[in-house]
Amino acid sequence: MNKVFIGKIVSCHGIKGELKILSDFQYKDKVFVVGNKLIIDDREYIIRSYRVHKNFDMVTLDSYKDINEVLFLLKKNVYFDKNNLNLESDEILDEDLITYKVLTNTGKVGIIKEIFKASETNKIIRVLFDKEVLIPISFIKKIDKDKKEITVELIDGMN
After folding, report:
1. Do the beta carbons of residue 2 and residue 9 sit within 8 Å?
2. Of 60, 64, 86, 113, which one has the fewest beta carbons inside 10 Å?
3. How far apart are CA 148 and CA 97, in angstroms?
4. pTM of the predicted model, to two decimals?
5. Secondary-structure breakdown of the chain: helix, strand, coil percentages, each rounded to the nearest 5
C-alpha cells in the first residue's frame, strides 16, 4: 500500500469519541469523506462522521462511540492510501514534486529540495541550482508529469 501523510491526532473532543486531527494536507476534500478509510498504525479505520472545527479536522471512526475507546489513537500519525486519492490530471501532491527537475525562464536547471509553508496561503519551494533559491509556488508556470519537470519564471534578482 502506498500511503501519504495526512496529519496527526492531537486530542479528543467531547465524550463520544470524536478525534481532532491537525492537518495541512492540500486535498482534504478527497480524504475526509464519510466512508473513506484512514490508516493509523498500519490499520484501516472507516470515517463515520467529519466536520471542521477551528483549525482542526474532526472525525469519528466506525465502531468507536466513546472517548475511552479512542484514547489509544492520541498522538498517532494519520495516513491515506494514495491510490484512493483520485487526483485530477492537473493535481499533484507536494511530496511528488520533490522528485521533479526545475527549469527556469533563464535556462537554469535545478532540483527541488523542500516544499514548505511560509504562511497559511503561501507555499515556498527550496530549489538547488548552483546556489539555493527560495521560489514562491505561484511562480510555477507549467508542470509536466510525464517528464517530471516544472517550469518556473524567475524575476530579476532571484537567479
Report:
1. no
2. 86
3. 8
4. 0.84
5. 15, 45, 40
Residues 149, 100 contacting (CB under 8 angstroms) = yes
C-alpha pair distances (Å), 57 with each of 24, 63, 111, 115: 10, 19, 33, 22
CA–CA separation, 71 and 68 (whole Å): 6
Q: Which residue is it, cell 478525534?
A: 19
pLDDT digits (tens, 9 = 90+) for 52-95: 999 999 999 998 999 999 999 999 999 999 999 988 887 889 88
Please check whether residue 18 is in contact with residue 87, taking contact to mean a CB–CB distance below 8 angstroms: no
Break the chain into its structural domains and give their ranges.
3-84, 94-152
Residue type, 139: F
